Amino acid sequence: HLLLATQRPEVTVITGLIKSNIPTRIAFQLKSQIDSRTILAAGGAEKLLGNGDMLYSPSEGTEMRRIQGAFVSDDEVKRVTTFWRNQKENFGEEGIGGELDLDDKTVDITEAMDELDNGSKEDALYEQAKEMTIRTGRASTTSFQTAFSVGYPRAARLMHLLEENGVVGMIGGKKTVLMNEGKVIPASAEDEKEQYGDNPLADQSDRDKWQL
Fold first, then answer.
1. pTM metric for this prediction
2. Cβ–Cβ contacts within 10 Å for residue 23, how many?
3. Which domains does the chain have, with CATH numbers?
4. What CA–CA distance (Å, rounded) separates 14 from 37?
């Protein structure tokens, strides 16, 4: 769906070309009948009461309808979007669209509920990811996906937490493991060539790697 909104209902803004390509329109309370005609090609919106009271003009060309829009707070929008975003994290990209075999796959309800934390708590795998990064001297979303059998969103969140907590970061324009037995280990040219090849921009999966 394409939604267009304007703060000022003027003919210089809502042009005839826009009207011809977007026939479905709604109007909230307006100051004058002229403003109402600019949007709906008819008066009436100037008599609305506000607070979600609106006129709806469908594309089918039938008569306008007066309807009431529901109020949705910013907090509610955030809760709903966070919930659906965490659903994707729980199952991972590789699980989306795949066949579900209930005989072979079970879900730990407690673990699943722990994941619906809207990102406010540390990931349960964070300490393992941190230990792996310090031990090997490198980290990547791909390696976390393989090591912990998680999807890309959760692996990317682990990378974000490592960066946020100072385990990995940027020094001198290079991605660096900052914690390695108390030392700062910069990325070497040989390791970069081994990880990325001669053309570091050729492979998207390699571009997100943090290496020694």
1. 0.37
2. 11
3. 16-68 (no CATH), 72-121 (no CATH), 122-212 (1.10.10.10)
4. 11
